[in-house]
Design goal:
This protein is of the alpha/beta class and 220 residues long. It has two domains: 115 residues, NAD(P)-binding Rossmann-like Domain (Rossmann fold), CATH 3.40.50; 96 residues, Alpha-Beta Plaits, CATH 3.30.70.1450. It has nine helices and eleven strands. The strands form two sheets. Strands 3-2-1-4-5-6 form a six-stranded parallel beta sheet, with helices on both faces. Strands 7-8-11-9-10 form a five-stranded antiparallel beta sheet. Helix 5 links the parallel strand 5 and strand 6. Bound molecules: adenosine-5'-triphosphate. Adenosine-5'-triphosphate binds next to helix 1 and strand 2.
């Protein structure tokens, strides 16, 4: 489902960063915060920003929260406020509600009350950074399941000038290069004769074990 209008509850570092990016992407964003200074600051950036307590049903009704396709609850410290705001957005009929959790228990409560997606920004960023620290050429990754991952890897010097058939990660380790991002553009579904260069980024799909073996073989 594609959303066009977003309401963000809580304009701290996390909420304002989401809002700013959505605006850059061309979407409409209403920001809500009980702190006047934060609202003042973000009112220059967002489509609208209002000072309001998001735990009050009447307030959310009056700002027309139900007309938004997607609501993001970006309150961390005040767990009670986060839960109340999330419940109210769901009850008002906001189609998709995403909420930030600061602990496992907070996250479980948010899931129980029907939040569509619970995110743990600090925890997830910590995990991501740990992976990148131990594999410096790992730029990013998406876990498709517990077993399968898509990883973006820098092409190291030792692979520069080699064709995919020479590198042969599928034959050797079982994982496949599904795209090569070159400075000139991206090659989707590259063939055996495509050549890697040092500044390229390869997108690799496979099991965690296969990708690890491949990374290991190229000194990462
Ligand atoms: P950050 O995103 O900066 O890491 P945080 O996780 O520390 O934030 P808080 O600072 O607790 O989270 O909350 C983020 C914002 O949510 C703050 O600007 C705060 O004023 C706002 N906020 C908290 N409770 C409410 C509420 N009931 N109604 C509206 N805004 C609220």
């Amino acid at each position: 489902m594609k959303f066009n209008q977003f309401v963000i509850i809580g304009l701290g570092r996390f909420g304002s960063s989401i809002g700013q990016e959505l605006i850059q992407l061309g979407y409409e964003v209403l920001g809500v915060d009980r702190d006047e200074e934060k609202v003042e600051e973000m009112s220059r950036v967002l489509t609208h920003a209002v000072v309001a307590d998001a735990t009050e049903e009447g307030v959310l009704r009056s700002i027309g929260a139900r007309n938004f396709d997607c609501g993001v609850v970006a309150i961390g410290d005040d767990i009670q406020a986060s839960i109340l705001a999330a419940i109210l957005l769901k009850e008002l009929g906001v189609k998709k509600v995403v909420a930030k959790a600061v602990s496992g228990l907070h996250g479980r409560v948010l899931e129980r009350i029907g939040v569509d997606r619970v995110i743990y920004p600090e925890r997830d960023m910590g995990i991501r950074l740990a992976h990148q620290l131990v594999s410096p050429n790992l730029l990013d990754y998406i876990e498709l399941s517990k077993q399968y991952t898509i990883a973006e890897l820098n092409v190291p010097g030792c692979l520069s000038g080699k064709t995919l058939s020479e590198v042969n990660p599928r034959g050797r380790y079982g994982c496949s290069i599904v795209a090569i991002n070159k400075p000139k553009g991206i090659i989707i579904a590259p063939t055996a004769t495509d050549v890697l260069a040092e500044r390229d980024v390869m997108v690799v799909i496979g099991t965690n074990q296969q990708i690890e073996s491949f990374q290991h073989s190229i000194g990462q």
